[in-house]
Amino acid sequence: MEKFNTLHYVLAVLKAYKIKYLVGSPGSQNSTFNYLVQEDPQFKCYSVVDERSAVYVACGIAAESQEPVVVTCTGATSARNYDSGLTEAYYSEIPIIALTFYNPYSNQFSMSPQYTDRSVSSNDIKAISVHLPEIQSEKDKRFVLTSLNAALSRAKYNNVPVHINCPSAYDYSIKSLPQDIWTTEYYFNNFTELKGILKDKKIGIFIGRHRKFTKEEENVISNFAQSYDAVVFCEHMSNYHGKNKILISRFRLMNNPSLRPEIILDLGGISCIYNNGGLLKNADYWSVVENFKYSAREEQKMLKLLNGRITTIFSQLANSGNNKQKYYEILMKANNEIEFKEFPISTILTVQQLAENIPNDSSLHLAILNAVNACGFFNLPENVDVICNAGGFGIDGPISTVVGQSLVNPNKKCFCISGDLAFFYDMNILGNRHINKNLRIIVVNNNQGFIMRTDTRIENNAGEKTGVLICAANHYKNGAKGWAESCDFEYMCAKTKDEFLSKIKDFCNKDYNKPVLFEVFTNTEAEKESIRLLFGYCSPNITRKKLSKLEKIFSIKNEYGQLGKHKVIRFLGAKIKIKRKWKSEKNK
Question: From the CB of residue 181, how many other CB atoms can be counted at a distance below 10 Å?
């Protein structure tokens, strides 16, 4: 079996996009590529020594043929000579594919001859620039294929110049090209032709972080989902309040590969949920965008990119007949079977009770990862808008952001749930004069950055020693009371579960004459126990033979009893025994 390198994948994907025109300049780094294309009958090749002229020749070919054209050069200063011609291509919207080659054994620190840094270039010479690594692993290959599709699809369908930087290889003996490639098709105006592919499939819509949908957008997505009995997989930051909605984190708890969709239509931005339970695995992946942005979630094989307004795309794709799959019905049945045991006082309990008591028409800000993760398992009222600073997704600014939200509509309650580190990091804003009484802040004070302790790679090695630097324990020992009261906040606190449950309803619904800060004190063991209870959930009507996804994410070890009646998982140092229900038992 032949071993293929990055150069071979570049050539294979170029052929798959039916690129045929090439203008090549001489050199060593691109010598193998030049040799392979000159021997391939698909390519019509032209030789131009001067790279400055080569791009303009390519512009002429592209303008006349109305097809993308490849220009290729070696290392050193050769690519610098492309700038003038690529500038022309950029402003004239000419699809030039600048394919440059570099020596993979040289870098900015190696004092290698003919090395030039191509990581930065002028904005107006290309629409996209991708740097390809040498392929050493399956992960490298996925990245190379995603990058190639991102660049070549833009050139072919958007008529823009693009840049691909490829490592050189001296392998003239190749007799075939890799077959494990894929290409992305673009759709612009007419989406109805795709309806035949969707018919009778298990369809999912994945919505990541998203601005508030308009009512019209929400209606067309709802109508589409209902017409196929499709499922809209959401996180709270998607701000989707339409039909057929199921939370991604709850799907993760179902842990059943047979429930995964066959086709996924992906829209929205970054997902704040780090693990989606294999939701995208093995599904045909379609991306829905309005700005031609090429982003493949988890480097999925993006088979189709649908560019247009949400209202246009989903209204054209809606099913006019009956769909054989009862996908949403099946998933909703499994979703309704999820029941949790009572949690001790913890982040998870706090979020669960906030979700149950938060009033309609409120806003909720989730401050960084622990609050986001916990909230993902609990349904909120359908008209509560949720945001999180997930663009940079750092510790900065959650309290300041919710203060900004609260200023827009003084009659709308604005809630925030934050851990202690994030709160104290951003607490100065509470002294600002623009603070309204509609502001409600919960601080879960577990005396550390607890999210790091949920990572068994850290916890199993460092344990309590994480408090020194990793989790930053034992800061702000007196809590938030002094600061809150000095800023004229109503201060509440809870140190026991009963105390918390007795106050949470008032915190959410009572009218106060000042903003409110509710500090909930928890500890490490209670936080760990809540996680054990959350992931120890097992639906009585769903058969599981393994919990592989949990194993991968949380490093859980499996132990099977001799009769196979129970499964024991180890998580954060505790054993959880789960009764397993076999298919033979289900059918009795």
Answer: 19
